Amino acid sequence: MSRIHLRRWAVRTVAAVLAVGAGAVAAAAPTVAGTSTARYHCVPPAASGKPAFDTDIPISLDGPATAQPGQPITLTATIPDSGQSNPGPIALAGMKQAVDFSITGSPVTATTIGSKIGSIPIGAPLPNPAMTATYTPSAPGTYTFTPTAYTLSVDTGIIGWLDTPCTLLTPPAPPALTIEVANNVPIPAVPANLQTTGKTHNSVSLSWTASAGATSYKVFNGDILADTVTGTTATITGLAPSTTYTFTVIASNSAGDSPPSAPVTATTSGGGGNIPFAFRVAGSTTIKAANGTVPLTGSITGTATTSGDITADLTLSPASGSFKVFGFVPVTARVTFTQEGPTTGSIRDGVLITSTNLRVKVLSVKLFGLIPIGGGPSCQAISATTVELTSKAGFDPVTGGPLSGVYSLPGLTGCGALTPVISALFAGPGNTINVTLTPAS
Q1: What value does the mean pLDDT of the chain take?
Q2: Tell me: the pLDDT tens digits for 256-275?
Q3: What is the CATH number of the domain that holds 31?
Q4: In Å, how far from its chain's centre is CA 37?
Q5: Domain contains 187
Q6: 252 and 313 housed in the same domain
Q7: Cα(3)–Cα(58) distance, rounded to whole angstroms?
Q8: Cα torsion at 288, 292, 298, 304 (round to 10°)?
């Protein structure tokens, strides 16, 4: 069979499927919602040489009469069975159809409902399977579904899919389905019996009675949202020792939030005086002037008072970084940061702030990673630099967390004949540091 003859045969098949039209509209079976009948202009593939034709297509659409915002609904579209069969001379490899709908409601959008079936032998009935789609209305309102186009496609198995699009002659078509979307879910009741069930030096555990219709609960520490849970218990962490906090709970669902519960207050324990801590330190620092990064590993140990003040010792291991002299000559430098004086700071309202005086020492500098050009035990910054690190809100003094900061580096001295060059490699503002504290044991 030639390709043009095959195309013409495929168009005859399309026309057979659409035999419900051309002025002889078959009676549609009863549907849940309704049927929209309109006249469409159908255009067979151009290569077939067949002219376009007009036909009446009744498109039925079923769906629920009512729905909730955010709740998916299933839509089913059908057109009457034509009663035709595959005319041959070859079996169809597949057939699919799709109906486009405009949706007027809140908001205005559009959707396509489609179906696809497998092979159809010669002489087998040409089915009109139901077309289904899922649509989720986003807001309350009246949603009207109106057909705007219909497309029937057949797969010849030899030259692929051939489409026959059908568009409305006199839009708009009558609406096929109207669905009322209303939020009938009541706002949940106010959570009752909020109480403290436990506390430590940095946490408070809470429980309350379930609210009918609630799907989640928002726990507030003062005016700050501290946690969102689906159950009726929560443990708020990252608190300061010997500090009084006020908590409330709000019940939520798709309809909105309840008023807040009656407040409950709780005071964290003092931790028995100064609280020892020990963390591993891991991260990196970026030297802006050298356009390079040095990995950081080490430890920090110290104590925190009941008021949240901390004193600690920071130890960082020497590490190597790759940099560029004059912006393009690669060098490798062995660098260490030495603490001068204790690390001080505080942890209050879930935020850790530390301040450490560090002196940079450059143990070696090698051109191309091979040729020594300076550095040594006396090569160091002319003065210590203050590095301040701050955590994000919710830092847990038990489990640790990330810290970050920005600092400046002074010039270097004692680095050999190329001290000015090596100093320029490190000195300057805008250096960043990012580390994470994790429990040492």
Answers
A1: 83
A2: 899 999 999 999 876 556 77
A3: 2.60.40
A4: 43
A5: no
A6: no
A7: 33
A8: 20
